Structures are given as C-alpha cells and as structure tokens.
Amino acid sequence: MRQAVLTARVDAETSEKLDEIAALTGRSRSWVAAAAVKAYVDSEAALLRDVQEALAAVGRGETVDAAEADRQIDQMLRDLRAR
Predict the structure, then answer these.
(1) What is the pLDDT of residue 8?
(2) How far, in Å, are 9, 57, 79 from residue 73 at the CA level?
(3) Binning pLDDT at 50, 70 and 90, where does residue 1 land?
(4) What's the whole-model pTM score?
(5) Are 21 and 32 within 8 A, CB to CB?
(6) Roughly how many angstroms between the first and final C-alpha of the chain, as a whole number?
(7) How many Å apart are CA 30 and CA 40, to the nearest integer?
(8) Residue 36 pLDDT
(9) For residues 57 and 46, is the Cβ–Cβ distance under 8 A?
(10) Who contacts 35 (Cβ-Cβ below 8 Å, separation ≥6)?
C-alpha cells in the first residue's frame, strides 16, 4: 500500500495520551497516530455515506411521520430486549 506523510498539531494532553498508548502497546507513535487517523476517517466516511443515503431517500419521498418512526423504534427496542 502506498503511504503518505502527514503532519498534525495536537494539544499536549493528546500527545501525552498518544505516547502512553504507544508505550503500553509496544507500538510506535507513528503507528498509533496512523491507526487513530484511519479509524476516524473510516468512521466519518461511513457516517457521511449514511447521511447522503438518507438525504437521497428523503428526496425520493421515502419518509415516515413521527408517530410511525416512534413505533418502528419501539419495535426495534423490543426486538433487542428479546434477544
């Protein structure tokens, strides 16, 4: 995989936490920082995809009113509790 060099400024507390995680895991600061950036980017990309899909669904008129949304959420919660 091709790699790129990235420079970022973080506050002292974040830098100290990064050092602590690196020491506790036996990984380099660079590895921990890269893993953190990747996790954030993957999470944000998924969220933004979901938002775009939701906006497209709204544009197609695929919506429910608040009462129906409440009913669906209540059913999902009942299903989860039944597991």
Answers:
(1) 94
(2) 41, 18, 10
(3) confident
(4) 0.75
(5) yes
(6) 41
(7) 15
(8) 97
(9) no
(10) 27
DSSP the chain: -----------HHHHHHHHHHHHHHT--HHHHHHHHHHHHHHHHHHHHHHHHHHHHHHHTT----HHHHHHHHHHHHHHHHH-
Size of the chain in residues = 83
Q: Which two three-digit tokens encode residue 5?
A: 């060099």
Sign of CA dihedral 56, 59, 64, 66: positive
CA 71 to CA 66: how far, in whole Å? Answer: 9
For 14-69, how does the pLDDT look when each residue is reduced to its tens digit (9 = 90+)? 999 999 999 999 999 999 999 999 999 999 999 999 999 999 999 999 999 999 99
